[in-house]
User: What shape does this take?
Amino acid sequence: MRPTPALWAVLPAAGVGRRMGSATPKQYLDLAGRAVIDHALDLFVADVRIEGVVVALDPTDRYWGATAYAEHPKVARANGGAERCHSVLNALDALGDRAHAEDWVLVHDAARPCLRPADLDRLIEALIEDEVGGLLGIPVRDTMKRAEPDDRIGATVDRASLWHAFTPQMFRLGRLRAALTDALAANHLVTDDASAMERIGQAPRLIEGHADNIKITRAEDLPLARFYLQQQGRLG
Assistant: This one.
């Protein structure tokens, strides 16, 4: 009888966040007295369903040691890479001795601190028996425009079937590892894990979450994230 697949979490956190205009990488910026990455890790460390967490960090990272989970027994460190896809693959390789190919991996952006527990529950419950896996997202609500090189509108895009892709993205460890390896061998730097799965002919499932699962990319995102955390009752 095959054992029940375990759940693991991976957070790629080797980026420098150039768009923030800050010397400090965005995952380490202060958000309500704690680093952004601490808020992002909270749910995964506290969730008893998740066996362990791997954080992929720049080898020269000098900030991680001051975070809340740097020495936590449930959290391990792996070397990050040049791009997000390299970091995720390195983290999956680091799980090789502990996890099985059929285990589930939830990949979450280190700069997404406002993931709701209910959305994490919804994702896991919806996908735990799924053949492929999937990701959190929300349907596009704004009118979408395709720009020409001179920044003039080339076309209005039908938004009916468009979604914003969020994280976590949840896939079987072995398949995701193979998909990322294949993408990198083809010099295709996929920007999310679902894209890697799509390249090998898989159709990940979209699970609707909440719009407050924002990614910190610009300075104005920090006060918004603080507001969302307050609304969720996560700041005490």
